Every structure is written in C-alpha cells, then in structure tokens.
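Because showing beats explaining, we think one record worth quoting, sequence and backbone structure tokens together, and here it is:
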Amino acid sequence: MLLSKYNLRNISTTEISVPDATLFDLPEKVLQFGTGVLLRGLPDYFIDKANKQGVFNGRIVVVKSTDGGDAGAFEKQDGLYTICVRGVENGKKYEEDIINSSISRVLSAKS
C-alpha cells in the first residue's frame, strides 16, 4: 500500500503513530536544503514531534539539491514517510513506528 493522506485511514493506529489530519494544514515555516536520511531522521523527526505536541505548528519545504532520486516520490506519498525508532529508554527496550508528516512539499533546485 502506498503511503498517502488518503490511505492513512486504512492504517491501524495500534501499530504505528498516524498523524492527525489537522497537521496537513499547518503553515510552512522551515526551508530545508536536502532530502537525506539524516535530515529526515533528526530535524524533521523533531519538528513532527513538536507539531504533534502542539509546540511548533509548522511544516517544512524541502529543496532537493542533487540529481539522484526523484522529488516525485515525495509527492506521490504527500510528503509522508515512516521512521522506525529503536533503542533503550530507562533500561527498557523501546520501539516506535511513526508516520512523519512534517514535509509539506519538495522543490527541485534544478528547475
């Protein structure tokens, strides 16, 4: 199943953190250069987390700066992607799967 705003309603919320529909209406507040895994896994993760807590209330416009890959892949998924958090917290195994909705759109620097 393709991850998209439309398909969010078909995802079980017991197994993964699904974003609320209101998050898609937040204003664009961040301009980010690059689409790399590190950017999506750190700053974008924390922006998504802050949005879900009602602290930041803004989304990210990403500028794709390299030729590799396709900005259309982000568009097909409405900017949504999953993050799998694994680790140890307070001496206990911690696992969380999250659908990140912090990216509003991806622009290409080449166009």
Observations:
- The chain has a mean pLDDT of 92.
- The beta strands are 28-33, 59-64, 81-89, 92-100, 103-108.
- The radius of gyration is 14 Å.
